Fold this protein.
Amino acid sequence: MTAWLLLHYKLPSKPSALRVYIWRKLKRVGAILLYEAVWVLPDNPRTAEQIQWLAVEIQEMGGNAYYWRANTILGEQEESLVQQFNEQVDAVYSDLLKRLENPRADLQEIAKQYQQASSQDFFHSKLGLLVREKLTSKRGEKP
Amino acid sequence: MKWVTWENIGVDRMACAWLIRRWIDPKAEFLFIPMGEKSLPEDAEPFDIPGTRYSHHGGHCTFYMLLKEHKVEDPVLARIAQMVDEADVIQDVTVEPAAIGLDLICRGLRQISKDDYEALERGQLIYEALYAELSRDEV
């Protein structure tokens, strides 16, 4: 059973830049916003610590954050969550695979985006492995 | 002086302990309390515990705050602070690719150590080595 981290927060309405700032950080770690209400991430030592400090940051900004560790009660909901996390990274991976077909593809840029996506690939998507194999086999290939 | 932090130390707290001993309080003694423990020992300075002076503030890690509060000015330490920030705090923009590796090594170091005391002692070597190597760039 996967444990999940949930974050539910409110921020002062002004300045609105704070909202964008926190929102971007949550997107950056690959968190998913469920029904415009609660942010969710799979629990691991790294995500748990990152969200802990984000909750502290929100409180320092004059906001308030509830931070939970939770399990789903209904099994299929867990599958649906895992699927949502996979879809999120697979969208990036598919785009990278398409770009890798171009012989003039910017490998450095693709590798950078691959690394970012793989930091959010909590359930080891097969597409990610494919991007990785293509990238490493293209490396050093003479044009 | 005694310093106290939560158990299960990682990249930031290993860095802090090294910094404290090397630059701030050579006779520092370290204590560990369970994560989330509300009562802090009265005779010890807390660090990296949410809500305390030496903790994360303004989106920076505790190592960064210790440097700032103690006005330690050293370009190599500033670079290490950037790395620990990137390893421990979610960042929009990153400039130190070594940060991820540093985080992994510190996590692994805690895993293979019998307790936090041992992890802390071993962590000293990591940061001493990092400092030495980064210093070569500064000359």
